[in-house]
Amino acid sequence: MNRDDFAWVIVRAFGVYFSAQAFLQLYWLGASTVRIAQLYEMAAMETPRTTEIESQILRSWIEISYASAEFLLFILLAYYCLRRGGFIHRILCYRAQENDT
Question: Using an 8 Å Cβ cutoff, are 29 and 67 in contact?
Fold first, then answer.
């Protein structure tokens, strides 16, 4: 296997890694959505802890926004590495040109 082939293997391995991270983020988003639904049910009960529950709901929405952005980033990186990847490949295969002066 020459250097060019090895560089493509590296790029594709990064793509698989980013795909796995995206699916893990998707699982986390689902779990957070269920958690928010439970928090809304608890807030509807008019307990003395309502303000604490409301702050947890706000934090959960912020976490979901952050996780959604990470999911989108990982999907885009996975797509680039698995389908395109030319820029990363050129960086991995770069060899400085020697000057003949």
Answer: yes
